[in-house]
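Is this the right way to post structure tokens for a design question? Let me know if I should format differently. Anyway, here goes:
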């Protein structure tokens, strides 16, 4: 018993101690766009719906009863007014209402009264169908968004029915009572159908992935942390937003700090990405030993005045060519510690503590260690969105190079620092900035793309604001292909 309680307490403590590293805010503009898209989708689907059979018994006169069944009820035509959807802070959810829906239905009927049996087809019209449904948003134990129907209210103003076929007079005799009967039966089926729809969506949400493989080295965990928060004009979701190394998943020695994303009512969506998310990727690469590179002379640009060999190093390390005359060299460059990104208002800075181990390549191809340098550089950069791409620029704020260990005796590093810094500034950074100026395409899925995106670096996080556009769904594409083939 006690161990269970302790585990439970530990879980609660862990869950509370963690801050979301990615925050998503959906504004009313986003909700209304979603509603419009869903309404169009429902309108298309409704024509394909077959309603459940309705059967019952109605007492007529003192002794007689009419038993009836309506089957194969399909929607012929539906005048579907746009529903209204709003944030509903009271239940931390959404409230959907539909009013004044008119539906034309058709199907078959069967009836019996004593020994008299009849059957045929019918047309039906339901007028003034209305529905109010409140759905509470929550979080399940797996970190998925969850939906629970908390309130449902349906009404049907009135129903008109025409029966055709054998002995349809059975109904016509009691038409008014029958219409009322059907009306209340329909009314009673709406909310259970809505509940079923919600349960269906809930199942889909439960099956959604909350961890994604980004490349061969990293996964990104995006479960919800904490409950969704709903106020009168927005929905706030907090996601874990942490990268893990696939080879050696472990927690970094730093934590996500709390931050808040201001909602931008002019945009459908705002996403805040904290520097923790970026640094968890940095840590994962570092912990998996992936932040290192081996460099030899063949990788130095052909035009470079400095080659990676002992002769070429003479101006910087005079004793080197004397100890190892005209031999090629190699460098192992690696991160000494996790490179850390800081997001500050308007700028991103990166401090990267690196080291370079130098070797001489002996004629028998073995490596002899020469010395180790510490290379500390700080960079700062800006990011922006243009032409639908995320672009940026980087400059080097500080660069220091110092001798950490040496197998060949001491030497001054000033000149080496100067030439390395010049190389960075004239060769490496311009290349990097060329790539950043071309930029990277913004994330886009088969179902949606961003429209009008905007990015701003804030204290501790980057805020992305955007509108979204839903693209043709798979179903619509197949449907269109089908109609091309059939003509
Ligand atoms: C330099 O390294 C590359 C790849 O590690 C290797 O293919 C090449 O043979 C090396 N060149 C020299 C001169 O050692
Ligand atoms: C070393 O570099 C110099 C140019 O600085 C070049 O003349 C020489 O041939 C190179 N030696 C080797 C072994 O690559
Ligand atoms: C680099 O940046 C870090 C963090 O902003 C700072 O602590 C460090 O002093 C900087 N290093 C240099 C050499 O300016
Ligand atoms: C780098 O930082 C050191 C000490 O913090 C300073 O003396 C040096 O001028 C800086 N270099 C640049 C390029 O800013
Ligand atoms: C590097 O050396 C050149 C000439 O030797 C000098 O003009 C320049 O100012 C030096 N740069 C730095 C950052 O010390």
């Amino acid at each position: 018993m006690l161990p269970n309680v302790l585990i439970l307490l530990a879980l609660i403590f862990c869950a509370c101690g963690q801050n979301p590293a990615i925050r998503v805010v959906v504004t009313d503009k986003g909700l209304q766009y979603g509603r419009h898209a869903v309404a169009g989708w429902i309108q298309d689907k409704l024509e394909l719906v077959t309603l459940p059979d309705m059967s019952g018994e109605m007492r007529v006169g003192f002794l007689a009863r009419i038993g009836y069944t309506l089957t194969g009820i399909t929607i012929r035509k539906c005048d579907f007014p746009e529903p209204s959807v709003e944030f509903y802070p009271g239940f931390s959810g959404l409230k959907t209402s539909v009013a004044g829906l008119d539906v034309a239905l058709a199907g078959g009927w069967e009836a019996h009264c004593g020994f008299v049996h009849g059957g045929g087809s019918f047309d039906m019209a339901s007028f003034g169908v209305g529905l109010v449904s409140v759905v509470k948003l929550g979080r399940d134990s797996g970190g998925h968004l969850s939906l629970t129907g908390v309130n449902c209210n349906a009404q049907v103003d009135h129903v008109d029915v025409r029966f055709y076929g054998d002995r349809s007079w059975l109904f016509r005799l009691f038409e008014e009572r029958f219409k009322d009967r059907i009306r209340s039966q329909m009314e009673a089926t709406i909310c259970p159908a809505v509940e079923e729809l919600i349960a269906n969506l809930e199942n889909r949400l439960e099956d959604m992935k909350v961890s994604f493989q980004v490349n061969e080295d990293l996964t990104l965990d995006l479960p919800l942390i904490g409950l969704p928060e709903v106020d009168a004009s927005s929905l706030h979701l907090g996601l874990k937003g942490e990268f893990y190394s696939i080879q050696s998943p472990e927690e970094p020695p730093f934590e996500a700090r709390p931050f808040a994303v201001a909602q931008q009512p002019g945009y459908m969506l705002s996403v805040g990405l904290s520097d923790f998310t970026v640094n968890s990727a940095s840590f994962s690469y570092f912990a998996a030993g992936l932040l290192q590179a081996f460099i030899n002379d063949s990788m130095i640009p052909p035009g470079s005045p400095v080659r990676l060999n002992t002769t070429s190093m003479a101006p910087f390390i005079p004793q080197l060519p004397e100890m190892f005359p005209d031999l090629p060299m190699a460098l192992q460059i690696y991160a000494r510690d996790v490179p850390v990104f800081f997001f500050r208002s308007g700028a991103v800075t990166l401090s990267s503590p690196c080291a370079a181990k130098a070797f001489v390549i002996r004629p028998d191809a073995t490596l002899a260690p020469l010395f180790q340098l510490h290379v500390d550089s700080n960079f700062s950069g800006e990011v922006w969105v243009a032409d639908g791409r995320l672009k940026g620029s980087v400059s080097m704020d500080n660069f220091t190079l110092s001798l950490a260990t040496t197998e060949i005796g001491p030497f001054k590093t000033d000149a080496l620092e100067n030439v390395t810094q010049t190389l960075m500034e004239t060769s490496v950074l311009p290349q990097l900035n060329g790539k950043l100026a071309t930029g990277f395409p913004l994330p886009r899925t088969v179902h949606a793309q961003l429209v009008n995106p905007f990015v701003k670096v804030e204290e501790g996080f980057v805020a992305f604001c955007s509108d979204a556009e839903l693209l043709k769904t798979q179903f619509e594409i197949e449907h269109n292909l089908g109609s091309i083939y059939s003509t």
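Format looks fine. Someone answered above. Worth noting: The chain has two domains: 28-209+478-485, 211-457. The two ends are 70 Å apart (CA to CA).
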